[in-house]
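dumping this here before i forget
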Amino acid sequence: MTGRIIETDTDVAEGAAWLASREPRFAVALEACGPLPLRRREDGFRALLSAISSQQLSVASANAIWARMEAAGYCEADALRAASDDELRACGFSRPKITYARALADAALDYKALRSAPTAEVIETLVAIRGIGLWTAEIYAMFSLGRADVFAAGDLALQEAARMLFDLPERPKERALREMAENWAPWRAVAARLLWAYYRIEKQREGVT
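structure:
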């Protein structure tokens, strides 16, 4: 089963209210941040290619590269296969990311089937493709498929936001944050939205593309 799917702002608000009612620090963060963004995106090849292109980059850099990819018309699988390495490098893709993008194009995923697959199966399917790690798979499940109970614990901005909000002595590692997030089920994806929003308020910059 897919579990709860986030489709609207109302769904996000429901999850935020649930979290705030159970964790006082989330209530404080929500008051500071205001209504949380929906952050739903399209699913499919373009969404995963965009995620690959943004890996380990600032929001501004990722947006600039994606804009060049769109302008060149390389955001669909067939067009990407036909593009040369030099053409992709001109858009800002590194050698490894070119390899990953081609692996994704050749994977021929059944994106429609992923929409109804259990979250664990979605993530297992995606991480089997070279260049798609757990963070990318969880972000796809969260934003492109709308899964309400996914949490990208390896995200540095989420780790830093948790450190600040929960007054931790140091930034929690991925395993520790994942254990913390178990308490936020079944709305872990909304907890992530709230932590990203809190990060933006505290750091004055975006923590996720």
